[in-house]
Amino acid sequence: MKFNDLNVGYFFEAARLGGVRAAADHLNVAPSVVSRHIRQLEDDLGTLLFERHKKGMTPTDAGHVVLDYYRRHITEQEAVILSLEEMKGIHRGHIGIVTGGGVIDDLLEASKTFSQQYPNITYSIGIHGTNEIVSAIIADKAHIGIVFYSMPNPQLRVHRTATQPLYAIAARGHPLANAKQPISFARLTQEKLIMPDISFGVRQILRDAEKKERCQITPYIESNNFAVMVEYAIAGEAITIQPKFSVRKELENGSLVAIPIQQQNLEQAELHLITHQGRRLGEAPARLLEIISRTMPAFL
């Protein structure tokens, strides 16, 4: 039994993007081209790789086997390329980073030195919730992840951890801004909150705290856009729950204040610097990882 990796590549993109049309748009070809390559691969393997139904296409068990093969193939191919690049030194390449929106200012600060030393290295920075960050790292879609509240996972390697307590972030004129003592968790149930959805680490910490404290927080506004959460807090329309480092500039210029919350889960929240366990990083991402670990303010 033989099959063509070109056909596997078309199948992989259709599975990754959720359908033939999306894969065709991504690859800049006609949908019929993608379908033809997938049919050829199924004929070569003698099995169906997709279950086709009204809502779309999902990989069969055989399809998942082929997807796992192709992911390993991509990783091994990348390792060969990285070995050859290392012989030439860090002169060019691309680094994928996934993180949450509140980390960007600190990430920029940490990456300045690297960018000055290696100006020809390009980046992609994906902004996601905790669940998507972890998935991207495990699937080798990105080299480096900076994630809030990552549960222990044997597929992840944690390079650096920093305790970053969560605070109630409010406008200076908000009634809570005058609190002389840490507020209780139950006090949050009386406030208008703007929060991300449950795929984000901050919300997952709050969920665990809700169970422990036996009270429920219902967001006034739910948004996964970090800038939106900050702007609503500055305007006094709602408060948000974030670590201090994510709103450092706003705390320094006085537009926001951080009120401590007396609750163990929130006080012990952690930020993690992660990579895929067993993945060999090239010299460029490995060097950037070391710089982030050593100089990023949130980890100091």
Could you walk me through the main structural features you see in this protein, from its secondary elements to its overall organization?
The protein has 11 helices and 13 strands. Helix 5 (104-117) packs across helix 11 (283-295). Strand 1 (50-53) and strand 2 (56-59) form a beta hairpin. With 300 residues, the chain is an alpha/beta fold. It has a 5-stranded mixed sheet, sandwiched between helices. It has a 4-stranded mixed sheet with strand order 8-12-7-11. Strands 1-2 form a two-stranded antiparallel sheet. It is 44% helix and 22% strand. It has helices at residues 5-17, 20-27, 31-45, 61-88, 104-117, 130-138, 201-213, 226-234, 248-253, 264-267, 283-295, and strands at 50-53, 56-59, 93-99, 121-127, 144-148, 156-163, 166-171, 183-184, 194-195, 221-222, 240-243, 256-262, 270-276. The relative contact order is 0.15. It folds into 3 domains: 5-69, Arc Repressor Mutant, subunit A (Orthogonal Bundle), CATH 1.10.10; 89-163 and 270-299, 3-Layer(aba) Sandwich (D-Maltodextrin-Binding Protein, domain 2), CATH 3.40.190.10; 166-267, 3-Layer(aba) Sandwich (D-Maltodextrin-Binding Protein, domain 2), CATH 3.40.190.290. The longest helix is centred in the first third of the chain and has 28 residues, at 61-88.
